[in-house]
Structure of Coenzyme F420 hydrogenase/dehydrogenase beta subunit domain protein:
Amino acid sequence: MHPKIAEVIEYDVCTACGACAAVCPVKAVNVNTKAEIRDPNDMTLYVKGAAPEVCEECYACSRVCPVVHGYLEDEFANVKRFFAAKSDIPGQDGGVTSAILKSLFEKNEIDCVVGISRDENWQTELILMTKPEDVDKTTGTKYTYDSVVSALREPFEKFDRIAVVGVPCQIHGSRLIMDNINDKIVLLVGLFCMESFYHDVMTEEIIPEKLGLSISEVIKLDFAKGKFWAYTRDGESHNVPIPEIAPLARDPCHACCDYTAIYADISVGSVGAPDGWNSVLIRTEAGERYFDMVEGLEIMEDPKPGMSLIKKLTDMKHSNNVEHYLEVCEKFSFEDAGIY
């Protein structure tokens, strides 16, 4: 019997989170670094050949796939605390994620984190962070997609206390790894995400065609106030309405039903907080414990516009994507997937 992820790939709802590649004992699954290739029958993509011929039928891949596992209808049932925070670390907004990682490295609470760095042309690279100063290489949101979880395969062999920072599908896959395969992940920090884009779409279509810019001019990208913004080296800002670029998002994003990373220990985003701050959702006891160790943060209780705006965008993502996801679920030969 073929693994369930073969159908997830066939129907183009594979998120390319990389959880399957991280846990497959025979390396039958591989996701390229740009998260664009997911073909289990393409001989060139696998270390030992085509997946169906190499698979030992352990089905670890199916146990860690977020699409197979399904989505929860209520993203806020496990939220213990909501507030805003900011640090003095340069970052996308309040720099909270960077502050969390730096503090935990400094206190020797984590051994490593997989992060994404970029050059001045927004070409990204997965890097392994093992010390506080490494965090500075990964600040800022890229809005393109790299298969973060797939890069955990080697760290699983070398480290015992791994933190994962990622968008909802990556956090979902990582949680399933924690629950089913490997106990070396100790902290999950989730990032709010409506959708992401392939690298070439961002650099060859959205930036030059929709915004009329050269990618080398851009120093920051952001979603805010219904628009996609690009900030340039000359101090100017440029924007385009989100509906104009939303159709260009990766196809799997249109079937994702998680906006705030419900499976995270700590969820972080800019929506719901004032400019220059991050919204923070503490979801688990581990999240509480690790966040209490973080130093150098300013906290704002009951920030505005607050949870109402976060829930509004969550509902928007669900209403846009649930129907498509459930349509695909009807095609699956298995019954695991769905909305619960």
Remarks:
- Residues 307-331 form the longest helix (25 residues).
- The radius of gyration is 19 Å.
- The first strand starts at residue 81 and ends at 86.
- The domain at 4-69 is CATH 3.30.70.20 (Alpha-Beta Plaits).
